[in-house]
Design brief:
Length: 475
Amino acid sequence: MHHRLNETKTDLPWSSVSIKERCRRIAGARRVIAENGELWADLCRRDWRPDRLTTVSAELLPLCAALHWIGRRAPGLLRPRRLSSSTRPIWLWGIRNEIHHQPRGKVLILGSWNYPLFLVGVQIAQALAAGNRVLFKPAEGCEEIGAELVRAFHHCGVPPQALEQIDSSAGAAIAAIEQGVDLIVLTGSAQTGRAVFRQAAQSLTPMILELSGCDAVVVCPSADAQRVAECIKFGLTFNSGATCIGPRRLIGEREVCEAVSEQLVEKLASVEQQAIHPAAKDSVVAILRRAFEEGAIDLTGRFSLDELEKTGFMTPLVLGNVRSESEIAKADIFAPVISRLDVQRIEEAVSIVNQCRYRLAASVFGSKADAAAISDQLSVGSVTINDLVVPTADPRVPFGGRGESGFGVTRGEEGLMSMTVPVLKSRRHGSFIPHLIFNREKDSSVLLSVIRLQHGGNLRLRLKGLWQLIASFRK
């Protein structure tokens, strides 16, 4: 690698480096990625991600876009914002307010194994852009690619004391929280989120939790069945199904669900077996076994539970005869599995989605009017219409869930600002200080006249308030 940029300035506290300079350095990491993309892609090769394409398209491409966005937009968003005097209440005459966005302090970022670059990369970059010190714990098995990511930021002028990678063990995260941090950002399962939440609650440490999903694909009668099937196939096979917002439930009226599932089964017939991450395999096997015991059927005719249990590999699975209250229809399963849920009327899909404990995202397919009617009622973190998964990678948009899918957001403007603490700075100008003058009981008439003038329900009441105010000052 080349020598670090601006090495003479890295001895300064990171938060004292100007916002513009911080963002410039952080954005520079995309050039390191561009120069060494093949290396990064090879470091991410696993059984469940055997090719470069997923890493390049799902991690490197959106991460570089997010870094570029931070370099261009973050300085303007993070700089102090002066409130306009034209909208200031009249009784605060002489006060000028500014909102400053100060760093939270020490931010602990707990990474996930399914997307070890993009998710944590944006979180690290936004925390650093806000001026925080970052402790980064990669997921177990992702230490090497995590170290490469950290080196990229260091190479571009982020000082080592501002970004430190810690051990990947759960014990390292527990120890870091015990020692004290100012914000925890976790991407992981709901089970892990509960454990971290319990520990953080002891010190009232704020958290951003991006947790499990059981995302629905809602298919309106007006939907293009072939388009839906193609999108679901992509979502099931992308990253071997290890995507928190991957399609897990197909919900629609029977006729359209039959059309979609028939085409989906046909499209999946040529798909090779997918590897399931060892951390997820036992849970997937147990949930699927219970689903079959309850009467679920394999619509593909290719799936073998025994083979999955023995080898950790499975063909994508489409389940039929699944009830909305079944465990499989509410589970945070990390595998290429989707359950078909038939409803009498498409409006029933809304309650099915909103009553699920995992409400990370949803996709709605149909005409503009039909999709809008359904999507407006869904209580989820993000809704994608006539597509799934990919649009959420836009660097401009926030991402987060509801229910047991977590709280808070990362990415986009909202994610960037969540890495800061808003601090109000108010300055008094001039010698006139009303609350030091109007301190007698009879001065209440002055304040009542101000209320009538500003908030009276009609012109007569407002004119009365104005006249009373003038009269009060005359006295």
